[in-house]
Design brief:
The chain is an alpha/beta fold. It is built from nine helices and ten strands. A hairpin with a 2-residue loop joins strand 6 and strand 7 (about 110-115). Bound molecules: NADP nicotinamide-adenine-dinucleotide phosphate.
């Protein structure tokens, strides 16, 4: 599969690229094509050193080209930039492209980590993304509760659940395949896209629990 990562030069993008290059053609995206190529070169080296000879590949180019080429497109960008980035790239995706939002509307305040959408009465990420999609059934929300620190460390053993929301069974199945490819992650389907706000809110919950209780490497696992 061709997996494009918009904002792939960030921490999450690096983690996704390392993990999915084992089996897929990963395309790292950036506003700056040069930065994307440099990141792709660095990630390829790490992936090959960490996992041996990978079956896939990691290349890099500008966000718009990535959007045009991808079978699955991960929006690994900050909440504040959703409109600016998505208005440019989402009209370019193919009709069958599955668009994945791991975006968390979160801010740090005096009391701890808070959900911007609730605190400032703003739209949740999935709503903002869906405004720019031709085919809204192709959006899947996932990966809100796995931290970049875990994804970028190939030797760290993972045992976590990933909440998934989406309307189209086939699109959810494709995202589940990507989750399964990361050893130690399990997909937990929450329901239709409309319930994505529950997944988006779980990140500040997790981070406050971590800080207040001095828990290292927190994650969510349903038992
Ligand atoms: N970090 C985590 O552990 C974690 C965990 C779960 C979910 N998430 C979510 O995953 C997403 C990515 O997280 P991250 O920590 O990787 O984010 P990040 O490092 O802050 O940003 C990712 C990339 O977004 C691009 N970007 C930054 N400012 C931009 C702007 N003004 N306009 C357009 N693009 C911009 C940058 O790429 P270029 O400058 O190269 O274009 C940057 O490398 C976020 O929505 C976050 O809420 C993060």
């Amino acid at each position: 599969m061709k997996v494009g990562i918009i904002g792939g030069t960030g921490g999450m993008g690096k983690g996704f690229a390392l993990r999915w290059a084992i089996n897929n053609q990963v395309i790292v995206g950036s506003r700056d094509a040069g930065r994307a190529s440099e990141a792709a070169e660095e990630y390829s080296k790490i992936a090959n050193e960490s996992f041996g000879n990978i079956k896939g590949s990691i290349t890099g180019t500008d966000n718009v080209t990535v959007a045009k080429q991808s079978d699955v497109l991960i929006l690994s960008i900050p909440y504040e930039n959703i409109d600016a980035v998505c208005s440019e790239i989402l009209p370019q995706v193919s009709d069958n492209c599955v668009v994945v939002s791991p975006i968390v509307p979160m801010t740090k305040t005096d009391v701890g980590f808070e959900c911007v959408a609730i605190k400032e009465n703003k739209p949740f990420s999935y709503k903002l993304v869906s405004n720019h999609m031709k085919n809204k059934s192709k959006i899947v929300s996932a990966f809100h509760v796995i931290s970049e620190k875990k994804l970028i460390n190939p030797t760290l053993e993972l045992d976590y659940d990933i909440f998934v929301c989406g309307d189209d069974k086939d699109s959810v199945a494709i995202v589940n395949t990507l989750i399964d490819e990361i050893k130690g992650l399990r997909s937990i389907y929450l329901g239709p896209l409309e319930l994505s706000y529950l997944a988006e809110m779980s990140t500040p919950l997790l981070l406050n629990a971590m800080i207040q209780n001095k828990i290292k490497n927190p994650g969510i696992k349903i038992i």
